[in-house]
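sry for the spam today, last one i promise. struct tokens for design, 221 residues
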């Protein structure tokens, strides 16, 4: 993971948006979301980045990666009903915002970007997860990356969003799973039947010898 500001090697205007990537999780799991925050052409240095965890999707675990030369501020809020840990322990307080602030005289200028990472989970059972982000510059101005896409329109300040993917609850996958289980049961039954047949077969000789041994001798009364 890049932890220092990196110069953009392509057009700043093409990299103006705040992007988010997710590594290592799906619904109900834990993973790292990395935000790539650029300072576009014509802007003063970026000196603060605030990420908000949406109120409608509280997360039990939110941990921020420190960035050299930047301070961390983590704000929390109360929730009711509480979330639950794996052992059933209630969680009544969750992180609401994470803010990285550059030291005085710091930040990264136009043509550069910085990565900010969060370890999150358990992730919601949803297709996507958005992290509204506010970018503040050294002159005190800011840009709120909070706009949702509507249809084919591309917003000017799209909210950073990662793809999670809902858990499969229907459709083809469950059918395949049940079909495979059925074949397994049938195969097990055939195996048991074959073993039973083999155990009843006399050792050595012609099986017809059993029939002759069991036929009464007409001379015996």
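last one done:
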């Amino acid at each position: 993971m890049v932890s220092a500001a990196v110069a953009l090697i392509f057009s700043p205007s093409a990299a103006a948006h705040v992007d988010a990537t997710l590594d290592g999780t799906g619904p109900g799991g834990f993973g790292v979301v990395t935000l790539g925050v650029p300072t576009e052409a014509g802007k003063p240095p970026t000196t603060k980045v605030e990420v908000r965890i949406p109120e409608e999707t509280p997360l039990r675990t939110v941990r921020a990666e420190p960035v050299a030369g930047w301070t961390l501020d983590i704000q929390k809020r109360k929730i009711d009903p509480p979330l639950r840990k794996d052992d059933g322990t209630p969680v009544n307080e969750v992180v609401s915002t994470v803010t990285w602030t550059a030291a005085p005289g710091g930040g990264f200028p136009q043509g550069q970007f910085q990565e900010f990472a969060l370890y999150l989970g358990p992730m919601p059972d949803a297709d996507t997860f958005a992290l509204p982000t506010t970018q503040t510059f050294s002159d005190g101005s800011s840009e709120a990356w909070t706009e949702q896409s509507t249809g084919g329109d591309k917003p000017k300040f799209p909210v950073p969003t990662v793809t999670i993917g809902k858990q499969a609850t229907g459709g083809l996958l469950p059918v395949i799973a049940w079909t495979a289980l059925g074949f397994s049961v049938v195969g097990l039954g055939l195996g048991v039947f074959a073993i039973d047949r083999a155990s009843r077969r006399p050792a050595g000789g012609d099986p017809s010898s059993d029939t002759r041994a069991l036929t009464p001798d007409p001379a015996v009364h």
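The chain is about 15% helix and 35% strand. ok im logging off now
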